[in-house]
Amino acid sequence: MDRVPEVAVVGAGIVGLCTAYALAERGTAVRVYESGVPGHGQSGGQSRIFRHAHDDARLVEFTREARAVWDEWADRLGAELVSRDGVVALGSTVPGRLRILQDAGGIPARTVDSAELHARMPLLADYRGPAMLDEGGGAIRTRAAVERLADALGDSLVTDEVISLYPTGRGTVEVVSSVGREEYATAVVCAGVGTARLARNVGLSLPVQPAAHVRLTFQVRGAPPERVACLQDSSGDFGEVGVYAAPYPGNSRYAVGLSETVEVREDGSFADAEALTALSDRARAYISHALPGLDPEPVERLNCWVTSLPWSEDGMAVWEADRIFFAAGHNLFKQAPRLGRALAGAAMDDELEENLRPAAALGQPR
Ligand SMILES: Cc1cc2nc3c(=O)[nH]c(=O)nc-3n(C[C@H](O)[C@H](O)[C@H](O)COP(=O)(O)OP(=O)(O)OC[C@H]3O[C@@H](n4cnc5c(N)ncnc54)[C@H](O)[C@@H]3O)c2cc1C
Q1: Do residues 32 and 154 both lie within one domain?
Q2: How far apart are CA 43 and CA 232, in angstroms?
């Protein structure tokens, strides 16, 4: 590294990687601390859903802007980062969410009849209830995104755990890591489940709720469809009211999870040790009813921590203390490039965007 970095980023999940890349875009020297393997925390595993549909119009706008940054970076990094195969949503939430999308203007989303639904989602069983298609949504190529961003950051990305960080009182931030102490102009903490602990060290109490989550991946029966949309099912027609699913690159595998998570205590222990197994059994039962296009024996399993904010399962916010920024929320993968640019801007002395301040409760249904 030629220059002493100005900004420390803690965590190389998708949010930290995007923040560091956005800082590098601005010509800012950055160091990213990652205690494990980049992209193996909440950002782990192949595939996520990029959807515009949210219950908060401000978040719809944020997501639209995020899609534009994904597309810009895909061109620059030379890889598809989000597919163009759309997202279908089923159930009684469809009319309300569609109204918000249509009010936003310019987002190609519409109701679909059963024939079009099954053309877009050929793995799905017969379904005749409310359905919509978000044509500008698709599957995020998570591995490609993590790899390309990490490659672009090169030796700015270091394997090192941040033990604590604090303001020095001289307008700078000291970062204490496993192997050293360094001073920076500012720091951005994107440490997933580790963020709340680091924030407590500087007197901030973040209302982050940690939980455990399980997602199963199934093989598509026969030849993979040429196009297959992501799925959000809140219909209850197949026995569950909160299911999401997304194809892997090449469409031969499909990952399925229940939105429901398993609560954990503050120390990370489970109140019900069997709860994760029960959730994965329910996901298997769901696919045997809803997705006959999949072989019902899972080929992969992802057990993972997730963090969320109390006002929405899509909630997101940034806390600040003396030039240290702490980002938290859930379902952040799709938002990460736009959030990363906002964090980079805040770190480089632009004001933190009003919508990202905790008081704005971005994502809260309204
Ligand atoms: C199964 C599953 C499905 C999901 N589906 C979707 C979806 O469809 N769409 C969507 O948009 N989002 C989805 N999400 C949520 C999304 O993946 C996460 O919100 C996002 O990946 C969070 O990224 P992050 O960078 O904030 O956190 P993380 O990916 O957890 O990254 C934090 C990093 O910080 C590192 N770290 C922690 N403490 C320290 C420390 N002290 N020092 C150094 N490094 C540290 C960790 O090792 C980790 O790599 C899903 C999540 C899961 C688990």
Answers
A1: yes
A2: 19
What tokens does 229 get?
Answer: 């949309």
Ligand 1: residues with CB < 6 A are: 10-16, 33-36, 40-43, 48-49, 161-162, 190-192, 194, 213, 215, 244, 257, 302, 304, 306, 330-334
Tell me the CA distances in angstroms from 194 to 95, 267, 305, one per residue in order. Answer: 37, 12, 11
pLDDT digits (tens, 9 = 90+) for 216-250: 999 999 999 999 999 999 999 999 999 999 999 99
State the CB neighbour count (10 A cutoff) for residue 8: 26
Q: Check: CB of residue 218 under 8 Å from CB of residue 39.
A: no
Dihedrals phi, psi of 351, to nearest 5 degrees: -65, 145
CATH of the domain at 189: 3.50.50.60
State the CB neighbour count (10 A cutoff) for residue 116.
14
Q: Flag whether 70 is in a domain.
A: no
Does 268 lie in the same domain as 253?
yes
| Span 172-219, pLDDT tens digits | 999 999 999 999 999 999 999 999 999 999 999 999 999 999 999 999
Count Cβ atoms within 10 A of the Cβ of residue 134 and give its class: 0-12 exposed, 13-18 middle, 19 or more buried.
Answer: buried
User: What does the alpha-carbon distance between residue 85 and residue 75 come to, in Å, rounded to a whole number?
Assistant: 18
Q: Which of ligand 1's atoms lies nearest the C-alpha of 38?
A: 49
Say which amino acid occupies 298.
P
Using most ligand atoms within 8 A of CB, pick from 48, 198, 208, 262 the residue to mutate for ligand 1.
Answer: 48
